[in-house]
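Hi P.,

Sorry for the delay on this. The queue was packed all week, but I finally got your sequence through. Input first:
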Amino acid sequence: MFTGIVQAVGKVVRVKPHRLWITRENLEVSLGASVAVNGVCLTVAALDGEKMAFDLSWETLARTNLGELGPGDPVNLEPALRPGA
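Then the structure:
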């Protein structure tokens, strides 16, 4: 579940055909965590220092504008609520 409140603005670092790398902007996330990126719920697939990666399915690319993002583009980030919050 998400609050609808953007908690950080990250930047796209790299875009591969089905993987999107974004700066973490000090968000507390772990592998498998859910993060809304520009309102699209995605799962953290990899972490590398201050970057996090998300796998993008064909369906996600077809139904959102995430496939149009390029390096340096800003993205709204919202981690999922923690249980009991």
